[in-house]
Amino acid sequence: MVTKKLSEGVKSEGNGSNDNVFASCSFSSLGLDSNLCEQLRERLGFEVPTQVQAQAIPVILSGRHALVNAATGTGKTAAYLAPIVHHLQGYENRIQRSDGTFALVLVPTRELCLQVYEILQKLLHRFHWIVPGYIMGGENRSKEKARLRKGISILIATPGRLLDHLKNTTSFLHSNLRWIIFDEADRILELGFGKDIEEILDLLGSRKTLHDDQENTVPRNSKIQRQNLLLSATLNEKVNHLAKISLENPVMVGLDVKKIEQISTPVSNDHSESDEDNEDQYSSKMPTVGDYKVPIQLIQRYMKVPCGTRLPVLLSILKHLFEREPSQKVVVFFSTCDAVDFHYSLLSEFQFSSHSQAEGTRQKFLGCKIFRLHGNMVQEDRRTSFQTFKTEKSALLLTSDVSARGLDIPKVRCIIQYDSPGEATEYVHRVGRTARLGEKGESLLFLQPVEIDYLQELETHGVSLTECPVLKVLDSFPLYGQKNYIKKSVFLDSHPWVLCLQKALEAFIMSKPEVDKLAKKAFCSWVRAYAAHRGELKRIFMIKKLHLGHVAKSFALKQQPSLVGQSFQKQEKKRKRFEKKTGFSKKRKVASVRERRP
Ligand SMILES: Nc1ncnc2c1ncn2[C@@H]1O[C@H](COP(=O)(O)OP(=O)(O)OP(=O)(O)O)[C@@H](O)[C@H]1O
Asked: Could you tell me if residue 590 is inside a domain?
């Protein structure tokens, strides 16, 4: 029986192995201060370094610029924070708040900002004179200004808010800046922050310009040696430009031996070269598209699910997972914030009985606690959702790509990608929220039969998935009180359990006008997001091949698609008018369909 096999899968195949994760050396042997090593042990519970820490820490301690590539959940955060703290605590004259900012960590999302800040706080416990701080979208600007005026030694920031303060907070002192770190470098660029980053580097005098047009830039304090670091589990050609303008003669950490040899020739710093020459030199030396590093113990599966049955199948899988193991955490990724809101309301309220539809016998379909997290939520709700989900033992998180990067949530056992991520990089980061640091984990990707070529796209990045036999999972649910009511169901769309559940879902939506409204809104933004896939991926995610009636069904909507379609078209026209007026860039436009405030 597959239900059993699935659960066995995690136990037998998913043997978390620590052999590949930890290095056989100590933190002190890497050159870190002994007090700091004790902090790592006492406050964070880190006894020995991970492989990437063992490789990166000595390089970063040496002062070289670096590009660090290692699988998700392998400890990249401490790999860059520890060397910075080591240097700062060792300054002969203790640094003071009035010295301003020495290190700047740029991250793509607010949650990651808070997460890095929390780790830093722990690391600095014994070094009270080094002040950690963060600035990010959604927070009170005046309070941030006040904190910056007092002085923050190590500052974690999201790009937009940082740029805002660099331009408008005159008391923000950064003349002592020594480190700039781009955590999840590729994501920062993908979100359309490329121009902001260039401006930030200019304002900080850290941009490696070839034609030294220093207008509007702060002259770099010549006494301070700058060190910039780029990190991600998926460094690809998108990072080349950022590396080109921000790294000087970088060391590559975590790339395979061949690539390191290829790259080891120092990259020239000769400012007499032309921009183009330098770009060519970089492109031949920087990593290009290749295999992404996915935790080896992660079990990756996909499910072939026709569009019209997606919703009952999702609910069934979730029920199955929580019945299989009541104490666990599961994360489901959706393509839009509206889809998160709709599914959150639905799953929080939907009651069901497979015996009879009499009110009294119905109970909540899912018994677990449910949370949501996306970029359009108000900051306070975002923070509460994230922090509470983190501490829960058993819970479900419905989320957008805002949670895909860097978030370290303990005991997440399964990642479901209900909407395909599109970019293979995002696939890798989404699944990377489980199977962290050698732990067990599994992932499930929903694909419609017409999207099945996406598996080949993932294959080109070295990511292989096996099929999850969804029918057998569905067969295990009792209907009308009988367990083995069906033996030969071949098609998902005619499976009695699926039909019964779909009918109940549609009736539920009809009885709840507010959820019905959310469903229609989610339908519209889902179609928009589907249409916004990058050019090359459009051959896989073809909007023309979508049956809008089936899409509507996947939001439990009974209405004819034309009805919903009309309101969608109205919204589309409105959106286009708005974009024409405001002149949104194409890059931002695509991101905006999915998330407005990462
Ligand atoms: N040396 C260590 N010993 C034990 N645990 C560690 C060690 N280093 C890191 N960890 C833990 O491993 C987990 C993953 O670390 P971290 O979030 O830094 O990974 P990452 O490589 O940045 O992941 P991602 O690519 O997803 O951002 C965290 O829970 C962290 O506390």
From this structure: no
Question: Mean of the pLDDT values across residues 438-459?
Answer: 96
CATH of the domain at 204: 3.40.50.300
Going from the C-alpha of 94 to that of each of 89, 204, 431, the distances in angstroms are 7, 23, 42
Task: Tell me, yes or no, whether 283 lies in a domain.
Answer: no
> Quick check: CB of 76 below 6 Å from ligand 1?
yes
What's the confidence (pLDDT) of residue 291?
Answer: 73
Is residue 430 lining ligand 1, measured as CB closer than 6 Å?
no
The minimum-distance atom of ligand 1 relative to the CA of 408 is 17
Helix (H) or strand (E) holding 373: strand 369-373
Structure ipTM? 0.99
66, 201: one domain: yes
In a domain, 22, yes or no: no
Q: Is 14 close to ligand 1, i.e. is its CB under 6 Å away? A: no
Tell me which residue has its CA closest to atom 4 in ligand 1. Answer: 46
- The token duo for 176 is 């002592």
pLDDT reading at 567 higher than 70: no
Domain that holds residue 122: 27-209+224-257
Question: Is 77 within the bounds of a domain?
Answer: yes
460 and 397 fall within a common domain: yes
Q: Which of 217 and 251 is assigned the larger pLDDT? A: 251
Distances (CA, A) of 563 to 464, 526, 552, 559, 577: 40, 16, 10, 7, 22
The tally of domains found in the chain comes to 2
451 neighbors 542 (Cβ within 8 angstroms): no
The least confident of 42-46, 127-131, 263-267, 316-320 is 263-267
